[in-house]
Write a structure and sequence with these properties.
By secondary structure, the chain is of the alpha/beta class. It has 27 helices and ten strands. Among the domains are: about 30 residues, no CATH class; about 110 residues, no CATH class; about 190 residues, 3-Layer(aba) Sandwich (Rossmann fold), CATH 3.40.50.620.
């Protein structure tokens, strides 16, 4: 008997036994390539389906998980979702709703493997491809997502971390992750959009960082300008008013006025601003947070109110506003000025409450008030006085410029930082002065529009009056660097607090009041606002590429610098 003649091949579907050339032994040989390829494709499909269903199969509770993450189910009505607490159930639901992304990653890898099998000409290679379960599973943990993206999406993000997604992941990956989160949390309700028939301007005044991705800039790496913006907590694409550092998009910004012989005092500038607002002879809505900037605006209006005109002023406030400065509310607002209450957000404890990063109570109320009144905010006070980047950080206040710029994230863009600082009209020998200049030049445009992102009619922008948005306040800021902060966090905006004290007489507020982020900044639904005040928006969140394409086609590509 010839050796091997009574044996079967190791794989009867893809191999046969054949006599070797010497005629003394039967050995395995591959069947025709087409037959091997057909078997490989069939087995690969079966392996993919089995593996996907075992590891990432639909569980039957996807609807319940989605309702939980959208805040529609109570804790008592979510027993099907694993976990005992709100947070534990959120983690389970979030993981469950990420499965579609995992399945898509597996399907994409399957399709690539099928293509590779069809192109391969070596039977052994074909079969190896078809049986590579490890590579198939790895497609979930190493798909197109980078390691940082995977880390970011590994657990339920909160509102604060979502707002920093572009700092963490960059424009492209950040845009992709934001779209996934919007889908998981069910924050986009629209399925179709109307075509935009107007004419967009050539430049933007405000751009959400995902505009970089939507406009078609691929593999975008953070620029020096964006790294500076990160230091001063920019949420939108930063824009250098000096024109020294170019942003990745075509952005326009108000020019910085020349100081000349300006020597006005802060109280005089404030009083004059308020008098000019009264002189418009229109009903006014002041949004008062209890913080320093909006209190300066209110004090100035109360100091300069014409006889019989106080009834033209409505102060919009919340419970948090009163809590931040209760003495001023009691002594100067309650029962003396018309007020409107901004609804407070109270998160229930019996369900998961996703934070709406595209809307806030305050911005919604601002949008409503703009329909009928001039709206006054304390915005741009930080740009006049300094930066949230150091306001509550004594280490930054006390550090040297060289020590601060030794930060690893800044050393690679030191030349660009030096170029920006060369445009500063005053010596920048301290971190506070340096970061003031960054805020004054790079964040100005963002702050002019960030409280207006709930506006749906661009004509309403004509009613906006940010109190500090004047040439005189900018000139005062440049001319009086020594009047912004001393050497403690309590001294930040001390000149403004002195102004309030002269009116209200509150020693504690003057001596101890710290900077508080009162607006609770959100992005808002628009992905941008152009220089003709067109609100660039598609759907509820402007995160859907399909809806943006339906509305604007390829028009947004014109904003690439």
């Amino acid at each position: 008997m010839i050796p091997g003649s009574n044996q079967s091949p190791s794989d009867i579907e893809t191999k046969d036994m054949a006599l070797n050339e010497a005629g003394d032994q039967f050995t395995e040989v591959w069947k025709p390539l087409a037959e091997v390829r057909a078997i490989a494709l069939s087995r690969h499909a079966e392996m993919c389906d089995r593996t996907k269903e075992w590891h990432y199969g639909t569980s039957g509770i996807e609807t319940e998980c989605r309702e939980w993450l959208e805040g529609q189910r109570l804790l008592s009505d979510a027993s099907m979702i694993a976990g005992d607490t709100v947070e534990e159930k959120a983690e389970t639901a979030f993981s469950e709703l990420r499965k579609p992304d995992h399945r898509k990653a597996l399907d994409d890898h399957r399709d690539k493997t099928v293509e590779a099998i069809n192109n391969a000409t070596d039977p052994a290679a074909i079969m190896a491809l078809s049986e590579d379960q490890r590579s198939y599973l790895d497609a979930v943990i190493t798909p197109s997502d980078c390691e940082e993206c995977l880390d970011f999406m590994a657990q339920v993000p909160n509102g604060a971390s979502i707002r920093r997604v572009f700092d963490a992941l960059g424009a492209n990956c950040g845009a992709d992750s934001l779209r996934k989160l919007v889908s998981i949390f069910g924050q986009e309700g629209k399925t179709a959009e109307t075509e935009f028939t107007g004419t967009l301007a050539d430049t933007l005044q405000l751009a959400r960082p995902d505009m970089i991705d939507v406009a078609g800039i691929e593999d975008h790496k953070p620029t020096a300008l964006e790294k500076i913006g990160h230091q001063i907590h920019c949420l939108w694409v930063p824009n250098d008013r000096t024109g020294t550092l170019r942003p990745p998009l075509k952005l326009a910004a108000p020019a910085i006025p020349s100081v000349g012989s300006f020597d006005e005092k802060f109280p005089d500038v404030s009083d004059a601003r308020a008098a000019s607002l009264w002189a418009e002879n229109k009903p006014m809505s002041l949004f008062w947070s209890g913080g320093i900037d909006s209190t300066v605006a209110l004090v100035a209006l109360l100091k300069t109110v014409p006889d019989g005109r106080l009834s033209d002023l409505t102060v919009h406030l919340s419970a948090a506003s009163i809590e931040e400065y209760p003495e001023f509310y009691t002594d100067h607002i309650d029962g003396k000025i018309t007020t409107a209450t901004i609804p407070s957000s109270v998160n229930p404890t019996d369900r998961f409450t996703p934070e709406d990063i595209f809307s806030s109570k305050a911005t919604n109320e601002i949008a409503k008030a703009l329909k009928t009144n001039i709206v006054i905010t304390g915005e741009l006070g930080d740009q006049i006085f300094g930066s949230a980047g150091f306001a509550n950080n004594p280490d930054k206040i006390g550090s040297t410029v060289e020590d601060y710029l030794a930060n690893e994230s800044l050393t690679s863009v030191r030349d660009e930082i030096d170029a920006l600082m060369a445009t500063c009209p005053i010596p920048a020998n301290s971190v506070t002065t340096m970061m003031w200049w960054w805020n004054f030049t790079v964040k100005w445009s963002e702050v002019r529009f960030r409280s207006l992102t709930a506006v749906d009619d661009s004509a309403d922008f004509a009613n906006v009056r940010h109190f500090f948005d004047t040439d005189d306040f900018q000139k005062w800021s440049i001319a009086n660097d020594d009047l912004k902060i001393k050497d403690t966090i309590q001294s930040y905006k001390w000149t403004a607090k002195d102004y309030i004290h002269d009116f209200a007489g509150d020693d504690d507020y003057r001596d101890k009041k710290l900077k508080v982020g009162s607006l609770r900044v959100r992005w808002g639904a628009p992905i941008g606002i152009d220089s003709n005040n067109h609100i660039i928006k598609a759907g509820d969140t402007s995160t859907s590429e399909a809806l943006l394409q339906q509305r604007y086609s390829n028009k947004l590509q014109t904003f690439v610098a």
